[in-house]
Amino acid sequence: MVDELITKEMVLAALRKVQEPELRSDLVSLNMIEDLVIDGGRISFTIILTTPACPLKTRIENEARAAVISIKGVKTVDIKFESNVPSDGRSRGLMQLPIRNAIAIASGKGGVGKSTVAVNVAVSLAQTGARVGLLDADIYGPNIPTMMGVVSLPPPTKEKLTPAEAYCVKLMSIGFLVKPDQPLIWRGPMLHSAIRQFLSDVEWGELDYLIVDLPPGTGDAALSLTQSLPLSGGIIVTLPQLVSLEDARRGMEMFRQLNVPILGVVENMSYLELPDGSRMDIFGTGGGEQLAKEGKVPFLGTIPIDAKVRAGGDNGRPVIIEDPKSPAANALRSIAEVIAAKISVAALEKNAAIPITILD
Ligand SMILES: Nc1ncnc2c1ncn2[C@@H]1O[C@H](COP(=O)(O)OP(=O)(O)OP(=O)(O)O)[C@@H](O)[C@H]1O
Ligand SMILES: [Mg+2]
Fold it and tell me: pLDDT digit string (tens) for 231-240?
């Protein structure tokens, strides 16, 4: 008797048992399997992902492999992945970056929690299945590597720098390229070229969101950034008190002058929850909402003061990861959700997300 042949139908039947967790249907019904090749006991195929997200991808890969390897006679399973994100319509003279949405986080004032918001929003978005990059544009005081718990970059390829990765977020920071105790004396032109290089010389791959953490102030970094890539939106972080609002207004004005749509205002360190459940307004109250109202932009939410937020920043485990059920994590997650919703509405209004271009 001849050995039983493995047929395409058998492989597809096995893959019909594997669900796409988000879309709640199987890989075959969703037309996600392509290039199926059967060579004796060696099976290879490509899975076309609709949401090429890092946590889901691993799960789908494991389940698809397990399903196919269980077919009698199968020895190896080789799975490739592709995503069906529309390809770039290349324009002459423009370098295309496959980043669908770049969002900058700013404030007028330092130390209000921009980096904290950037890190936790990026991780939250990645947890929903989006492909997320985090760019530390604070080249004077880069904090993202510490906050994400990463010390160095992976080896570069011949042409480009490889971003680091933590919690399914790709990240790049000047902090990876200089020694921690080395003073950063950048002159304007160098700052501009550093930011451009972060965009053009880093292998970001395809991203649904690039979150950009801006340095404090209303300065050169934001200008360089917007000259290098069109931003889908800007977010202003403020504390509730008046002096912070004055600075935040300047941040808002900066986005306006740079023609960046303002996605909204986040109020950080809004209150401290006391052991008896009451709230103490350490920095005053309501300022963020007031600022949003007066600027006619959305208010995205408040984040309480929580020692875990600070600790998470210092030890490289964002509060979204370390204590996902805490009020601060919930607040940050819902801010990320609102941001994603606003971006998708804006994209729909524009009819489609247009790939970002960098001017040569
Ligand atoms: N809601 C919060 N509760 C407790 N600590 C917080 C909160 N938000 C931020 N922090 C802490 O406050 C400090 C300043 O936050 P962060 O570095 O995010 O601010 P920043 O605006 O990026 O500062 P800079 O302007 O220096 O870049 C950090 O130590 C951070 O962990
Ligand atoms: Mg910062």
Answer: 889 999 999 9
Q: For residue 206, name the pLDDT band (cuts at 50, 70, 90).
A: confident
C-alpha to C-alpha distance for 271 and 328, rounded to whole angstroms:
11
Query: Could you count the other beta carbons within 10 Å of the beta carbon of residue 72?
Result: 9
By the 8 A CB rule, do 86 and 352 touch? yes
Nearest ligand to the CA atom of 113: 1
- Measured by CA distance, the residue closest to atom 19 of ligand 1 is 113
Write down the pTM of the prediction: 0.77
Whether residue 118 has its Cβ less than 6 Å from ligand 1: no
pLDDT reported for residue 85: 42
Q: How far apart are CA 105 and CA 231, in angstroms?
A: 11
Q: Whole-angstrom Cα distance, residue 75 to residue 16?
A: 20
The residues near 35 (Cβ < 8 Å, ≥ 6 apart) are: 44, 45, 46, 80
Expressed in percent and rounded to 5, the helix, strand and coil fractions of the chain are 35, 25, 40
Contact 135, 211 (CB under 8 A): yes
Of 132, 175, 118, the residue nearest 152 (C-alpha): 175
User: Where do we find the tokens 């789908």?
Assistant: 60
